[in-house]
Structures are given as C-alpha cells and as structure tokens.
Specification:
alpha/beta, Rossmann fold, seven-stranded parallel sheet, two-stranded antiparallel sheet, 12 helices, 9 strands, transmembrane helix
Length: 352
C-alpha cells in the first residue's frame, strides 16, 4: 500500500482497507508467516530470518491527513531510528513538518533482549522523511545527557529558526523480578525513560517558550496505567511520565504550549518483537507462572488476539502516528494534560 493511495482514500475506503490489512495479518500469522513493513512473508521466508531482523525492516511510507496540517512546523523526535519514533517522524513529514530525528543508535543498557538501533536505521528514517520533500536533521546522542540535549536544541533553533513540536519517545525495558534486579537494571530504565523524557522537555521547552508556543507529546504506555509483573522499572517509568506530562501541562499552558501523552498498547517494534516479551505476554494472558521461554511469534499472537476487543494481538508502529499528528496540529489547540490511548481496545480493561 503506497502513500499516494492512502492520501487519496476517503474515510470509508480507509476503514475497508484497514480491515482487509488486519485480517490479512491474522490469517498470515495463523499460517506461520509474518507481515513486515506492509509486505507479506510466507512461513519459509520468515523462518530464514531472526525475529529482530524482521522487526527492523519497517519502511513506513507515511500518510497525509489534511491540507498540510503541520506545514511550516519543525518537529524534534527522540528514539526516531525505527518503530514508533520513525512512524511519527514520517507521518509528520507527510503532513508538512521538517523533522529532527534523535537516537542513541547504540545499546541503552549493557544487556538488551532486542536488537540495537543503528545509525543506518536513523538514516533510513531520514530517507523516508525526505521522500515527502521535507528536511531531516540527523542527531546521534543520549537523552540521559541533558547538556547534549540543550546543545542540540540550540543547534536546531539556529538551523531552522524555530522549534514547534517535541516528541519524547526514546525508551527501553528489562524483564526481571523486582527483588532480583541489579542496580543498573533498575536505574538504566528509569534514567532513560523517565529522566530522559524530563530532560527532553527541560531542554527543548525553553525554545518553544521563546517561539511563542508549541506542542509537546510524550510517550507513555498501557503499562503506565497498571502494574506489570517482572517489568516494575518499565511500568514505574511510564507511570511517572504521565505525572510528568500533567505537571508540565499545568506549568507551560501560560506559554501557549500543550503537553499530552500518547499511550500505546502492545506494539510490534524491536522492543517487544522478541522471545522475552512474547514469553511474558503469554504468561500475562494465561496467568501461567512458567510460560514457555522461547515461544514463536505465532504462539504469542494466537494466545493474546482472542482476548482483545479488536482481535488484534498487537499494533503496528504506524497505528500510533495519526494520533501524534493530531496532537501536534492546530486541531488540538485546546487539548492539554490529556492521555490518548491507542491500544486496539486494550484500554477498555482499565478501571478509570
């Protein structure tokens, strides 16, 4: 499905196409195959690749949702090398924004259960942004380093003359019982996810104030609205991000800056597209204290999908991007301090 087709579809056609794509994905997974970047891979092709290699091949072309909703805007996006960050970057470019893509392009923790983002991944995000005729500024660095972020904010301001949108997306996670965690396992997740999000706001919000307003979007998680077994550091960091967002919204409203949180459900990115997450997912759904340690994608998908309202076990990164574009646009001028759930219906289980 190409971007031209998506831009010319009406609402009804988009719904039909969406249902067709979702059904195709479920049918393909049921037969042992996979979908990568909208391309179907049969079970034989899937078996020849590592799961991380499959997850890295997201090449989202982008969608436009109106008459240049973000024309003339400059968006800074952290964790932009792939996954949700890439999808948001490309959809914002499709809607007129120039993009600054920031990513560490290296290990965040000494041990990662998922593939490491690379500079080549970030360059691919830049290529996809430029396909829409927009500028892309590539920045490699760590959101835990606020001095680096402040220097980057100065460079972006100098290059473009203004910053209008900030998306704090960079994240990592660890799977381990709380009392068994090493100090670094707890600290690296909190420092990257929560402190890194706060650093991003603290570094870039002054530029938005200077420019007379703007939009800040932070990425939390459904696991920021409930506890998560063996994922205490991740859940705590994402819960903290919601409190951070609401506090920042109260403080920055006088400066015409809106601050909102996007709440993804389970999303098929390298962070979750791995055996450790699939095993945890099966344990969550089945209440199994000893889930299989090396499940397949199909086993995880088939276990979870029947329990979800839309019968989709996990979302694609590009499912999150439309909400981010809306929150970044003038259409959301009166929306601040809000959480926007994009979960495939998983949020229907929340008590509030």
């Amino acid at each position: 499905m190409n971007s031209v087709r998506q831009r010319t579809q009406g609402p009804v056609e988009e719904i039909v196409e969406r249902q067709r794509t979702t059904m195709s994905r479920r049918d393909l997974l049921a037969s042992g195959g996979a979908i990568v970047g909208g391309v179907a891979l049969g079970s034989s092709a899937f078996g020849q690749q590592s799961t991380d290699a499959v997850a890295e091949k997201q090449t989202w072309p982008g969608r436009a949702f109106g008459s240049d909703l973000l024309r003339g805007k400059v968006a800074v996006i952290t964790g932009a090398a792939r996954g949700i960050g890439r999808s948001i970057a490309v959809d914002m470019a499709a809607n007129g924004a120039d993009v600054v893509g920031l990513d560490i392009c290296a290990k965040i923790t000494p041990e990662q259960a998922y593939a490491v983002a690379t500079k080549a991944d970030l360059e691919e995000t830049g290529r996809l942004v430029r396909q829409h005729g927009r500028q892309f500024m590539e920045v490699v660095g760590d959101v835990r380093d606020i001095a680096f972020l402040r220097a980057t904010a100065d460079q972006v301001q100098q290059k473009f003359g203004h910053i209008d949108i900030v998306v704090a997306n960079a994240a990592t996670q660890r799977f381990k019982p709380l009392i068994e965690m090493e100090d670094w396992e707890w600290n690296d997740v909190i420092n990257n996810n929560l402190n890194g999000t706060a650093n991003t706001i603290r570094a870039f919000a002054p530029m938005l104030v200077k420019n007379g307003g703007g939009r800040i979007i932070v990425l939390s998680s459904m696991q920021g609205k409930h506890g998560s077994k063996n994922m205490a550091s991740y859940s705590a960091s994402k819960w903290g991000i919601i409190g951070l967002m609401k506090s920042a919204a109260l403080e920055l409203g006088k400066d015409k800056i809106t601050v909102n949180a996007l709440i993804p459900g389970l999303v098929d990115t390298p962070l979750t597209h791995n055996e450790a997450r699939w095993s945890a997912l099966i344990g969550e759904v089945t209440a199994n204290e000893n889930p299989p340690k090396n499940p397949t994608e199909k086993e995880a998908y088939d276990t979870r999908a029947p329990h979800e309202p839309l019968k989709v076990a996990w979302l694609k990164p590009e499912d999150l991007a439309p909400a981010a574009v809306f929150l970044a646009s003038d259409l959301a001028a009166m929306v601040t301090g809000a959480t926007y759930d994009v979960t495939g219906g998983d949020n229907a289980n929340n008590q509030s």
